[in-house]
Amino acid sequence: MGRRVLVVGAGGREHALGWRLATSPSTDALASAPGNPGLAELGPTHQLDPTDPVAVAELAERERSDLVVVGPEAPLVAGVVDELIRRGIPAFGPTAAGAHIEGSKAFAKEVMAAAGAPTGAAVAATDPDTAYAALERFGPPYVVKADGLAAGKGVVVCGELADARRAVDDALVAGVFGDAGSRVVVEEFLAGPERSVFAVCDGEDAVLLAPAQDYKRAFDGDAGPNTGGMGAFCPVPGFGLADVHHLADLVVRPVLRELADRGTPYRGLLYAGLVETAAGPKLLEFNARFGDPETQAILPRLASDLGDLLAAAATGQVADVPVTWHDAAAVTIVLASGGYPDSYVTGQPISGVDAAATDPDVEVFHAGTARDADGALVTAGGRVLAVTATGADLSAARTSATAAADRIRFDGLQRRTDIAAAAG
Questions:
Q1: Is 192-320 a domain of CATH 3.40.50.2300?
Q2: Three-class secondary structure of residue 260 per DSSP
Q3: Which residue from 156, 294, 377, 395 lies 20 to 30 Å from 284 (Cα-Cα)?
Q4: What are phi and psi of 124, to 5 degrees?
Q5: 3-93 CATH fold
Q6: Alpha helix (H) ranges present in 41-104?
Q7: pLDDT tens digits, 141-173
């Protein structure tokens, strides 16, 4: 018999995980909590607070789940996996102690240094004067990060010292990020192209997935504010699977050993954000879960069984699970609400999703959508949909993704038009 899988989360990443798990031969049934309209097409959804460990664990018991896949960072930091493990339910994702590598950028820097993993210099500060001094030390461009989880919006990179000092004051004095900004990390700027490397970890070893390139800025030409991600593509020309294998020994395994030595074996997805500097690859940050929207571009290329791989990370040896890939390329274009990542209106009717998905090479992943009282699809978040297309190469995939995205309408829709343009 196959597995009964429960996916925890409600975004585009979770829809992509659920979609690929639903097509895995090892999966018999899929449920999600709280889910979204896209996940609802794959199996039952259950309304609950995903950061409530007891509620999630009780649902997993009622569902007789053989595997729980926790998508977002907040439930991981809240200890959902800890409670599942306590009840003997296999879970894909790190414990709260492991997820601290994303929950605290200062802790992540400490682990990187202790593991001997290459990274830039950094100073953690809880008072403005210490942060100001670090800004003067590192010079422009200035990098100021809220230490805790800030929904992808706690990073400021600027060229002027006055703007950097203002970012420090916003976090430490004005408290714009709440507790997440009660400490800031001021970092040396790392120049070079950014890379996203995903490692599926079982506590001791890791399997690296195909790398992806994402786009954080809101507007074309990498202009505008940082967002949670406006698009992605996979594979990355000049940075393929062969190129990431050495990163397992350079970055991932040393960090896994360091965490294990601290009594925190890391099981789940370790997302390494790297910069290819003139001095070689350096770590920018770690995330404790699949990236969004990179997941939507990576998983359509996965040919092997995702359920078996995630179960091995939760319970066994990931190195024993074969991981294979389709030759096709994938491009993901995010459709966002007008004004995102700042204020935006929700409840806007959405049309064209079914028309966009008529192309067999296109998947439309729901991120911030809902059903209104009449059952119509409406916007319910900043990033609303992620349109992914596969093709023989990046150019073909980009053409299909653009054509599909053109079919979708809602008031205020904003999107980038240059995703993968320079790569294909």
A1: no
A2: helix
A3: 395
A4: -95, 140
A5: Rossmann fold (3.40.50)
A6: 53-62, 73-77, 80-86, 96-103
A7: 999 999 988 766 788 899 999 999 999 999 999
